[in-house]
Design brief:
Elements: H1 14-18, H2 47-53, H3 57-60, E1 62-63, E2 80-84, E3 87-94, E4 97-104, E5 107-113, E6 116-118, E7 124-131, E8 134-137, E9 140-143, E10 148-151, E11 163-164, H4 167-173, E12 174-180, E13 188-196, H5 200-204, H6 208-216, H7 234-245, E14 250-251, H8 264-267, E15 268-269, H9 286-290, H10 294-297, H11 317-325, H12 343-348, H13 351-354, E16 357-365, E17 374-379, H14 387-396
Antiparallel strand pairs: 1-6, 2-3, 3-4, 4-5, 6-7, 7-8, 7-9, 8-11, 9-10, 12-13, 14-15, 16-17
One heme C (HEC) is lined by residues 13, 16-17, 118-126, 165, 168-169, 172-173, 244-245, 282-284, 378.
C-alpha cells in the first residue's frame, strides 16, 4: 500500500529539548514526594472537579502504555513504518507488552518497549522508553490528523533510538519525576517515583497536609494548606500558565522547582522568548501570542478569562464566544463592528474570524516526496481580524434568502 511508504516527520521543538538548566546549582527536588497524595485522594470532597479533570488534556498528557492510551494501530498492515523498503519499524502488541522493532533487510535489529505515552493525542503522541534510569524517545510517534504512525519530532528520516528526554520536557508534561544520580547528563530519573499527567497537585501543590486537615475538620467550609488561585494577582495567574504555555523559556533553576504563585522570572529567563509577529511558535506559546493582542493590552485578562481549566472545552465555540461577549457586549459600542452578519449570527462564532486555526510553526510533518513539511493546526492567540478567515466563514454559513 502506497500510503505506508509515506514518510512522516514531526519536526517539533528541538530547541525545547536542549535548553535545560546548567548543572551549577545543587539539584533539589521540588518537594518531598511523600507530601503528594495523587488525585484520587481529592475525589471524595471535590467530585465534580475530579470527574471533569479525567477528560482534560492536562490529565491525559502523559500515561502508561495500554491499548487505549496509545492511539496508533497495532493491526497488521497498519503497524509498519517504512523509512525505505529495506528499513522499517514494526509496532507490536504481545499480550499488552507494546514495542517497536527495527528491521533491516528483513532482519530484526533492535526492539524497545513503549514505557510512557506523551501527548493526549489531540494533535499527536511521542513514546518514551527506559534505558536504565534515563528516558529515551522512541523513533516512531503518532499523528492524529492523518491517523498514522509518524517519524518522531525533529528526527531526520532515519530511525533514532538514543534521543534523551530532559527534565524540562517531563516538567511540562507530568506532575513530577524524581531525579536520581543528579551529577549525570543527560538526566536520570527514578523508575518508580513519578506521577504522570498534569494532576491536581501540579497546579495546587502537594496535597497531603490539606487532605489530612480537611478530613479532621469536616465541619470547616474553607480550605487550608493548598494553593488557591483566588487571591493571585494577574501576573501570578499568567506566570503559572506561562511556565508551560510560554514557549522556549530558558531555565535558571532545575526542573520541577517552579510552583504556582511564584515569580516566573526567578525560574526562567523570560526575555529568552522572542516576541515575533504572527505566525508565532505554537508548541506552547499561547502567552506570547495573546500578549500582542489589544484585548490583552487594554484589559486585565488572563488565560482564566476564557479557559475553565479543569474541563475539556475543545470545540465549544459558542461557549468561548460568550466569554468574548463579557467584554464585547452585544448592543454596545464594543461589540463586533462587522455589518454583513446579524448579531445572532456573529454571536455563534467569534473565534473563526478573530482567533482562527492557523499553521503551527513548530508542529509540522514531512510527507515523503514533498519539499515542505505539512503543519498541524492551532488556534492563534493573537486576537485580531483575519480577513481570509472572514471570507471563508461567510462562504461556509447558510445566508438568509432575503
Ligand atoms: C476531606 C475533604 C477534602 C479533601 C480530601 C480535599 N479537599 Fe480540597 N477542600 C476541601 C474543603 C472543605 C475546601 C473548602 C471549600 C471549597 O473551596 O470547596 C477545599 C478547598 C480546596 C481548594 C480551593 C481553595 C480556594 O479557596 O480556592 C482547592 C484548590 C482544593 N481544595 C484542592 C484539593 C486537592 C488538590 C485535593 C487532593 C489532593 C483536595 N482538595 C482534597 C475539602 C477537601
Ligand atoms: C492545570 C492546572 C490545574 C489542575 C490540573 C487542577 N486545577 Fe484546580 N484550579 C486551577 C485553577 C487555575 C483554578 C482557579 C480557577 C478560576 O479561578 O477560574 C482552580 C480552582 C480549583 C478549585 C476552586 C474552585 C472550583 O472550581 O471549585 C478547586 C476546589 C480545585 N481547583 C480543585 C482541583 C482538583 C481536585 C483537581 C484535580 C482533580 C484540580 N483542581 C486540578 C488549576 C488546576
Ligand atoms: C505543567 C505544565 C502546564 C501548566 C502549568 C499549564 N498547562 Fe495547559 N497544557 C499543558 C500541556 C502539556 C498541554 C497539552 C496536553 C495534551 O494534549 O497532551 C496543555 C493543554 C492545555 C489546553 C488544551 C489544549 C488542547 O489541545 O485542547 C488548555 C486550554 C490549557 N492547557 C490551558 C492552560 C491554562 C489556562 C493554564 C494555567 C491555568 C495551563 N494550561 C497550565 C501544560 C501545562
Ligand atoms: C514549555 C513546555 C513544554 C515543553 C518543554 C514540551 N512541551 Fe510538549 N506540549 C506543550 C504544550 C503546551 C502542548 C500543547 C500544544 C501547544 O500548545 O503547542 C504540547 C504538546 C505536545 C504534544 C502533542 C499533544 C497533543 O496531542 O496535542 C506532544 C506529543 C508533546 N508535546 C511532546 C513533548 C515532548 C516529547 C517534549 C520533550 C522533548 C515536549 N513536548 C516538550 C508544552 C511543552
Ligand atoms: C477582558 C475583556 C475582553 C475579552 C474577554 C475579550 N476582549 Fe477583545 N478587546 C478588549 C479590549 C479592551 C479591546 C480594545 C478596545 C477595542 O477595540 O474594543 C479589545 C479588542 C478586540 C478586537 C480588535 C483587535 C484589533 O487588533 O483591532 C477584536 C477583534 C476583539 N477584541 C475580539 C475579541 C474576541 C473574539 C474575544 C473572545 C475570543 C475577545 N475579544 C475577548 C477586551 C476583551
Ligand atoms: C480571549 C479568550 C482566550 C484567552 C484569554 C486565552 N485563550 Fe486559549 N483558547 C481560546 C479559544 C477560543 C481556543 C479554541 C478552543 C476550541 O475551539 O477548541 C483556545 C485554545 C487554547 C488551547 C488549545 C490549542 C489550540 O490552539 O487549539 C490552548 C493550549 C490554550 N488555548 C491555552 C491558553 C493559554 C495558556 C492562555 C493564556 C496565556 C489562553 N489560552 C488564553 C480562547 C482564549
Ligand atoms: C464573519 C466574521 C466575523 C465574526 C463571526 C465576528 N467578527 Fe468581529 N469583526 C469582523 C470584521 C471583518 C471586523 C472589522 C469590521 C470592519 O472594519 O468593518 C470585526 C470587528 C470586530 C471588533 C472591532 C475591532 C476594531 O477595529 O476595534 C471587535 C471588538 C469584534 N469584531 C469582536 C467580535 C466578537 C466579540 C464576535 C463574536 C460575538 C465577533 N467579532 C464575530 C469579523 C467577524
Amino acid at each position: 500500500m502506497n500510503s505506508r511508504l509515506i514518510l512522516l516527520t514531526l519536526l517539533v521543538f528541538d530547541g525545547l529539548l536542549l535548553r535545560c538548566a546548567r548543572p551549577t546549582e545543587k539539584e533539589q527536588q521540588t518537594s518531598d514526594e511523600s507530601l503528594y497524595t495523587g488525585s484520587i485522594a481529592c475525589k471524595n470532597c471535590h467530585e465534580r472537579v475530579y470527574q471533569d479533570h479525567l477528560s482534560a488534556p492536562h490529565h491525559l498528557t502523559s500515561q502508561l502504555p495500554n491499548s487505549v492510551s496509545i492511539k496508533g494501530s497495532f493491526e497488521e498492515e497498519n503497524n509498519i513504518f517504512f523509512y525505505s523498503p529495506q528499513l522499517y519499524v514494526v509496532m507490536s502488541n504481545a499480550h499488552n507488552i507494546f514495542s517497536q522493532s527495527l528491521y533491516s533487510h528483513g532482519k530484526k535489529v533492535k526492539t524497545k518497549s513503549f514505557d510512557l505515552v506523551f501527548g493526549s493525542g489531540v494533535r499527536g503522541q511521542t513514546y518514551l522508553t527506559w534505558q536504565d534510569s534515563s528516558l529515551l524517545q522512541l523513533p516512531i510517534g503518532y499523528l492524529t490528523s492523518v491517523n498514522m504512525w509518524a517519524n518522531s519530532p525533529g528526527f531526520s528520516n532515519r530511525p533514532i533510538f538514543n534521543r534523551p528526554i530532559t527534565g524540562r520536557c517531563l516538567e511540562c508534561h507530568s506532575t513530577f519525576f524524581k531525579k536520581v544520580l543528579p551529577e549525570k547528563r543527560p538526566e536520570h530519573f527514578s523508575k518508580k517515583n513519578f506521577m504522570l499527567g498534569i494532576e491536581c497537585e501540579k497546579c495546587h501543590g502537594a496535597g497531603k497536609k490539606h487532605v489530612d486537615f480537611q478530613q479532621e475538620n469536616r465541619q470547616l467550609k474553607e480550605g487550608k494548606y493548598i494553593i488557591s488561585f483566588k487571591n493571585f494577582s494577574q501576573k501570578q495567574q499568567l506566570d503559572f500558565c506561562r511556565s508551560c504555555h510560554g514557549g522556549k523559556l530558558i531555565a535558571k533553576k532545575p526542573p520541577f522547582t517552579f510552583k504556582a504563585g511564584s515569580d516566573l522570572n526567578e525560574f526562567f529567563n523570560t526575555d529568552s522568548v522572542k516576541t515575533l509577529a504572527t505566525p508565532l511558535d505554537s508548541h506552547g506559546n499561547q502567552y506570547g501570542m495573546l500578549s500582542q493582542s489589544k484585548c490583552f493590552l487594554q484589559s486585565n485578562m488572563t488565560c482564566l478569562t476564557c479557559h475553565q481549566v479543569h474541563e475539556n472545552e475543545k470545540g465549544k465555540t459558542e461557549v468561548f464566544s460568550k466569554r468574548c461577549m463579557n467584554c464585547h457586549t452585544s448592543g454596545t459600542k464594543s461589540f463586533c463592528s462587522f455589518k454583513k452578519l446579524t448579531t445572532t449570527q456573529l454571536q455563534q462564532n467569534c473565534i473563526q474570524c478573530h482567533m482562527p486555526e492557523k499553521n503551527s510553526n513548530s508542529i509540522r510533518m514531512l510527507l515523503q516526496g514533498e519539499d515542505a513539511p505539512t503543519p498541524a493546526r492551532m488556534h492563534v492567540h493573537h486576537i485580531t481580524t483575519y480577513p481570509d478567515e472572514v471570507v471563508k466563514y461567510l462562504q461556509s454559513i447558510p445566508m438568509s434568502k432575503d
